[in-house]
Design a protein that fits this description.
Elements: H1 2-11, H2 14-22, H3 25-38, H4 43-67, H5 71-78, H6 81-114, H7 118-135, H8 138-148, H9 153-160, H10 166-174, H11 186-200, H12 203-218, H13 229-265, H14 276-287, H15 289-322, H16 336-353, H17 359-385, H18 388-391, H19 398-423
């Protein structure tokens, strides 16, 4: 039994890490704000996005594994060059902004735990994120990122420290209109729905998981080489499917725990939640020191997981676009440009986090940037996934196609809402 569980965990990788990286400090802030403002009335969004996340991440992983190239390289094969360059540039900008928000939240969380000023912690954490990718071999980096996914259980543990009315969670989460109050704003509620969608379905996750499957394919053969080639392909694709489903379900289960914990402890308390660190601080007088420490430590751990994914996905995209050798499995001297992008994105994000910028503004602009570029990237991915020229016999199934188009439609509706609300002044 134990050996079977170890074997199952060993097969998990890109999907699990991608899902866990989605619950970064920026995401934690969004989920905390959703619970603090609307209690459990946004829980349904996490049920909605789970199959959509699975579908689009399965597609990105499948593209990487089957073609042996990352998303940027494949998008360049179906889109004009200027479109690909624009999308990659926007991705890098959005990721750098997201890194700034995440590192700022990590520094503030450490300040709450250890005291002092947050700036030294910010610089130290930014340096640690760079060192993890520059000096750790690929296998150790992946192993470390897999271990870091365990910090997300801190948010499961937070629920054990408070009394949760699960009947009300189910009622309000599935039928939010039954708990609607006159003091709630429809506009604010709709905006938070958009924020949750933008947080759970993010372009950097597409690029990261596709690139990691390319890395896996380049390395030592996986599975039984005595099997015929089609059987091996099916075996590998089955592994990708299990890994992705587990990763995305884990991601949204943790997000649900954060929403519920904030709904139980912060809703109705007048707590002002503009960042993950503020959520941790607001939790302390209501739920006690244990919940506070778990929440704050989780912010640091998820940041250490997410920042390398954000910087790495930007580096993969730029390297593929420019034809540079890239990949964490290559050494620094083999892929200077690739690692240069990682360092630049992390350093710029770290320095940006030291600026006096409103944390919620950074989150909003990051969500807008991700939302704007997500839709065209998802459309391009669908054309790639349906192309026999690129995918051969492994074109996406009808079920995956419908699921991916549904995810794209939902994201397009979210972007349209953001644009409309901006034109109407909020």
């Amino acid at each position: 039994m134990a050996s079977g569980l170890r074997g199952f965990v060993r097969r998990l990788g890109p999907g699990l890490i991608t899902g866990a990286a989605d619950d970064d400090p920026s995401g934690i802030a969004t989920y905390s704000q959703a619970g603090a403002q609307f209690r459990f009335a946004l829980a349904w969004t996490l049920l909605l996005t789970t199959p959509l996340m699975i579908g689009i991440q399965l597609l990105s992983a499948r593209i990487g594994w089957v073609t042996g190239q990352g998303l940027a390289a494949n998008i360049a094969r179906v889109c004009p060059r200027w479109v690909t360059v624009t999308l990659v540039a926007l991705l890098v900008a959005a990721n750098t902004l997201n890194i700034a928000a995440d590192v700022a939240a990590m520094g503030e969380a450490v300040r709450l735990l250890a005291g002092g000023q947050s700036a030294p912690y910010v610089l130290a954490l930014g340096g640690l994120c760079v060192a993890m990718q520059l000096f750790f071999p690929y296998e150790r980096t992946v192993r470390l990122l897999k271990w870091l996914t365990l910090v997300l259980f801190a948010y499961v543990a937070v629920l054990l420290a408070v009394r949760v009315p699960w009947g009300e969670v189910a009622a309000e989460g599935l039928l939010p209109w039954t708990a609607w109050r006159d003091d709630l704003s429809v506009g604010a509620y709709a905006a938070m729905v958009v924020a949750v969608l933008g947080t759970t379905i993010s372009p950097y996750l597409f690029f990261w998981q596709a690139a990691q499957e390319v890395e896996n394919k380049r390395r030592a053969p996986l599975g039984d080489r005595t099997l015929p080639h089609p059987a091996r392909e099916r075996l590998f694709l089955r592994r990708i499917r299990v890994d992705t489903v587990v990763g995305m379900c884990f991601s949204n289960a943790v997000a649900l725990c954060i929403v519920v914990a904030a709904g139980v402890t912060l809703h109705g308390q007048g707590a002002h939640v503009d960042s993950a660190a503020q959520a941790a601080q607001a939790l302390r007088p209501v739920a006690g020191d244990f919940a506070f420490w778990l929440f704050a430590l989780g912010i640091v751990g998820t940041g250490l997981l997410a920042v390398p994914v954000l910087a790495g996905s930007a580096a993969y995209a730029v390297s593929e676009l420019l034809g540079w050798p890239g990949g964490l499995s290559r050494g620094f001297h083999e892929a200077r440009g690739f690692y240069g992008i990682i360092v630049a994105a992390t350093v710029l994000g770290t320095l940006g986090s030291l600026l006096e910028v409103d944390p919620m503004s950074a989150l909003v602009w990051s969500a807008v940037a991700n939302g704007v570029i997500a839709v065209p990237i998802m459309v391009a991915m669908l054309f790639i996934g349906q192309s026999r020229r690129l995918m051969g016999a492994q074109v996406m199934s009808r079920r995956l196609r419908w699921l991916s188009w549904l995810a794209t439609g939902v994201m397009a509706a979210a972007v349209a809402f953001m644009g409309l609300s901006s034109l109407l002044g909020g």
